[in-house]
Amino acid sequence: MNGFSLQELADALENKVTRQALHRYEKGEVVPDSEKIGWLSKVMGVTPDYFFRSTKVELGDVEYRKLDKMSSKEAVAIKEKTKEYLSRYLELEEILGLPTEFVNPLTDFHNVTSYEQVNQAAKALREAWDLGLGPIFNIVELLEDKHIKVVKLKVDDDFDGLQTYVNQTIPVVAYNTKKTNKPDRIRFTLLHEVAHLLLHFGKVTEKQKENLCHQFAGAMLLPEETIREELGQHRTKLSPQELGNIKKQYGISMQAIIMRAKDCRIINEHYTKQLFFFFKQMDWRIDEPVDYEGVEQSNRFEQLLFRALAEEQISMSKAAVLNNQPLAEFKKQQLIF
Predict the structure, then answer these.
(1) pLDDT band for position 326 (50/70/90)?
(2) Cα 71 versus chain centre, distance
(3) Which DSSP helix (H) or strand (E) runs through 143?
(4) Nearest Cα to 204, choosing from 142, 86, 111?
(5) Listed residue (135, 232, 224, 237) closest to 183, CA to CA
(6) What does the sequence similarity comment in the record state about its family (predicted)?
(7) Which DSSP string corresponds to 241-275?
(8) In this structure, is residue 152 part of a structural domain?
(9) What is the SS3 assignment for 149?
(10) How many structural domains comprise the chain?
(11) How would DSSP label each residue in 106-137?
(12) pLDDT per residue over 115-133, tens digit each?
């Protein structure tokens, strides 16, 4: 999770534990005593309970959204950070006896290869989740309510997001706060990963698959009926002001709105290229002139934690462990009634 080599970990421990001793711990030849476990926990940013956790977490095949070739070291760190968070989350749900069963509403969408199919799939998902045609408030909370776990990671810039299944049945999507650092980007990235999770693609290239997942995310955020109401049936020009207003209302970037308008044939490909050239000239490709101010977070884990604590299903010290905090730090945050 921290990307340490054995020697780097020994250095971080100021050689209180040698590289050779750490190697023997890894091999299971020697068990560290409680003092050394305390040192290891502090340096590696976990509680001592981490080393004794029994909740089973097995990740399935992991698909990443990345810009460049990711090193195996980075990939392992991402997987382990994801597993660490999920082990605490799943243990809490087990304590409360909560169901974690997920039903995929898009099982009928097989051999997906076209825009028309992903557009229809997005419409079907909105209907299955009773979302109507309006803006979706808080995608993170929506996914968590639908039993899709959302993991927030802070890792190397090459990584955008990932999706996989835990223990073969629990869907997981994750995003990188270093790369996906604005609410509209979080929303688009998560829905892109949802497309990977729920759709079964046909014979398409990786580039084509990524484009189809982009189109699915755009269709989820801005359904075809909705964008036609906002922009009209056909347009020869769009103003930055109207794109900005739609962004603020629907939580989708101005550039994604442009692509959505092209996909819906409201604007043609030539004008789409002109708009993107204009965005490049204005230096808006990374930082658009209008921000979406919505909230993208879920309090579900925290809510479950304090529910278990209030119902005395866990102790204060166990709650701190599940929240990956020292007990003293956890206690400071509590309100006593």
Answers:
(1) confident
(2) 20
(3) helix 139-145
(4) 111
(5) 135
(6) Belongs to the short-chain fatty acyl-CoA assimilation regulator (ScfR) family.
(7) HHHHHHHHHH---HHHHHHHHHHTTSS-HHHHHHH
(8) no
(9) strand
(10) 2
(11) TTT--SB-SHHHHHHHHHHHHHHTT-TTSPPS
(12) 999 999 999 999 999 999 9
